[in-house]
Specification:
five-stranded parallel β-sheet, 2 domains, alpha/beta, Rossmann fold, 12 strands, 352 residues, 12 helices
């Protein structure tokens, strides 16, 4: 393959700081990285890939942006993180080979584009899955510890200036923690809970062993296993098969006081069933970073429930996220150029 052929014309279709653009070029010199920072919506904070919604391109700027995007062999990001814009450029650009979504759950964005099977087979879609594993695993650990140490009770007593009789807190190293979903996030959760001394179980579809996991549970046996654990961490992506997987049957099988942390996709948990489980004490504490519909409805009882911690889908956010995703992109670019399998490829049947 000639030097010209062995290059990728990559268009940056979302805001990405120049230092991270240069990092990609440094890590993989065979990439021709095309960007125009004046045409992407400016970030409002770290990893704000869709950018400021109040920034509007002029018709001329939009035409320039579309022309730039349509010239790509590869896209860094779905244009403006907009599925409709992805559908437009896929139809306009038959040379497009690969699109990296900046979201770990980018499969849902690809699905929302409504692409034809020909396009789904022609283009490889990847996500940033695994990049957010560390921060999300830390939130899961925080959530389980908060439940084990009675954070709501501590805060209430502090607010009321109450000094109660001493009471026993739960110890993580005496707990069994079930990680529902042992992908990149789940594996990081398992590793951290093992270090804390917990017995770690995890659900699996493949049956392949995972470091730090003492027992593998087939996903279709989840309801049979939850009654034997002290805490559950949900990390699964949102698909048709995982929708409300943690529903009335699974929640009803839990023992009283089970701690729940949710860091995958909110659609995995049936929130009506969760509220019932919170009210009857089967769930003793829930730390939730994701919800069925976001932003969470101001009328949702989850906001004011005394044993719920609401995090506005922000646990994964890190000032280093952009650098990590840039490095992941450069690594996958090298894999593509060297005919090696790419990491975090979207399953275009189930879209995860």
């Amino acid at each position: 393959m000639s030097e010209i052929e062995n290059r990728l014309r990559v268009v940056v279709a979302v805001p990405l700081q120049e230092e991270h653009c240069r990092l990609i070029e440094e890590l993989e010199p065979r990439v021709e990285l095309v960007r125009d920072h004046s045409l992407t919506h400016p970030m409002r904070g770290p990893a704000d890939w869709s950018g400021d919604p109040e920034h509007v391109r002029t018709p001329e700027e939009q035409a320039m942006f579309d022309e730039m995007v349509d010239s790509a062999d590869v896209l860094f990001g779905i244009p403006d993180v907009d599925p409709a814009a992805l559908a437009r450029t896929v139809a306009a650009n038959p040379r497009l080979r690969w699109v990296m979504t900046t979201a770990a759950g980018g499969g849902s964005q690809v699905k929302a584009a409504g692409l034809e099977r020909e396009a789904l087979d022609r283009i490889t879609f990847t996500t940033s899955a695994g990049v957010h594993g560390g921060p999300l695993a830390e939130f899961a650990v925080f959530g389980v510890i908060a439940g084990a140490k009675g954070l709501p009770r501590l805060l209430a007593d502090q607010r009321d200036r109450t000094w109660p009789e001493r009471w026993e807190m739960r110890q993580v190293d005496e707990m069994t923690v079930l990680v529902v979903g042992l992908g990149g996030i789940g594996a990081e959760c398992a590793r951290r809970f093992q270090v804390l001394g917990a017995r770690v179980w995890g659900t699996t579809r493949s049956g392949e062993p995972v470091d730090g996991v003492d027992r593998l549970i087939p996903l279709d046996q989840l309801a049979d296993a939850v009654g034997e654990v002290d805490a559950i961490v949900v990390t699964l992506p949102g698909t048709e098969h995982t929708h409300h997987l943690v529903g009335a049957e699974v929640l009803g099988a839990m023992k009283p006081g089970t701690i729940l942390a949710s860091v995958g996709r909110g659609t995995v948990i049936d929130e009506d069933a969760l509220l019932a489980a919170l009210d009857d004490g089967r769930i003793g504490f829930a730390a939730l970073d994701v919800f069925e519909k976001e932003p969470l409805d101001p009328a949702s009882p989850l906001w004011s429930h005394p044993r719920v911690l609401v995090s506005p889908h922000t646990a994964a956010l890190s000032s280093r996220e952009e650098e990590r995703i840039a490095r992941r992109f450069a690594e996958n670019a090298a894999r593509l150029l060297d005919d090696a399998p790419l990491r975090a490829v979207v399953d275009t049947v189930e879209f995860y």
